[in-house]
Design brief:
Layout lengths: L11 H24 L3 H5 L18 H22 L9 H11 L5
Length: 108
């Protein structure tokens, strides 16, 4: 037989402790939902204002970002050449503008 005053219910202390535990869990869940930081990123040091220090969402270093910018530029050039929009370096700029003006005469 249980050696407590009333074995049919929990004591006030145990009920208060369980309520506090549930309250703490609820508060923690709400905080993670508000900041939308995944558990994996949080374990890598991510906080509401900070990115994780490693992994796919980590901040890029300056060197790596410069390399990526170069790669993106080359990719754009390849795409433009494939579409036929190659930049013509030795074509005179003035003649094309002059012809464009001739077509627009009298439209105003």
């Amino acid at each position: 037989m249980a050696s407590v005053k009333n074995p049919n219910c929990r004591s006030k202390n145990r009920m208060a402790a369980q309520a506090a535990k549930k309250r703490k869990q609820r508060q923690k869940l709400n905080e993670t939902a508000r900041t939308k930081i995944s558990k994996a990123d949080a374990s890598r040091g991510a906080r509401p204002g900070l990115l994780p220090t490693s992994g796919p969402k980590a901040r890029l270093s300056a060197k790596k970002s410069r390399k990526l910018d170069k790669k993106l530029g080359y990719a754009l050039k390849r795409k433009m050449e494939a579409d036929g929009e190659a930049v013509m370096k030795d074509a005179p700029q003035g003649e094309a503008e002059a012809r464009g003006d001739e077509h627009m005469v009298g439209i105003e």
